[in-house]
Fold this sequence. Notes:
196 residues; mainly alpha; Arc Repressor Mutant, subunit A; Tetracycline Repressor, domain 2; 2 domains; 9 helices; 71% helix
Amino acid sequence: MQLHKRDVVDAATRILDTYGIADLTMRRLARELDVSPGALYWHFTNKQRLLGAVADRVLRPALVDPPAGWRAGITDVCEKFRDALLSHTDGAELVSASLAAGQSEAMAQILALLTAAAADAGVERENAELAARTVVYYVLGFTADEQSRLQWDAAGAQLPDEQSVLSTDPNRRFMFGLRLLIDGIAAHNRAEIELL
Length: 196
């Protein structure tokens, strides 16, 4: 049987979903595919490139054209981004690592969508990507925390019984933080206009 790149990404995604990112090793992946570890390097020159391909697979559902209007666009992209991360074990950790290594084409597309929305909001071009990255860091951090809590809960760990903001609906908490960022993007321009 000839091994295809798609087969490697499929198997890596299954390992991620079943065991988590810590167990997604080239050796384990080779065992899963019944090939030598060297055979994997024919398709991916290193593990970072493999993780980037898996991140692209994870993020594929988030890559849709956002609705018109910069506020709706940012909200839609971020909701789909978070949903994609939550649909895979350690999705936020995987995508964060791929972003840091510059290995995810899908993450670059999400950043481009958010950068365009920030520019449409009136953020000057040199700061639009910074605004987009700030939003991405929020989504990744929020979702990593959310996934950690879900994993601790699934493991039966006794988490503090918090009667605080953390015990409320995670969707509501996510949207509250996202609205703060969107309002900050909108206020950024007003503040600069007032300085002139």
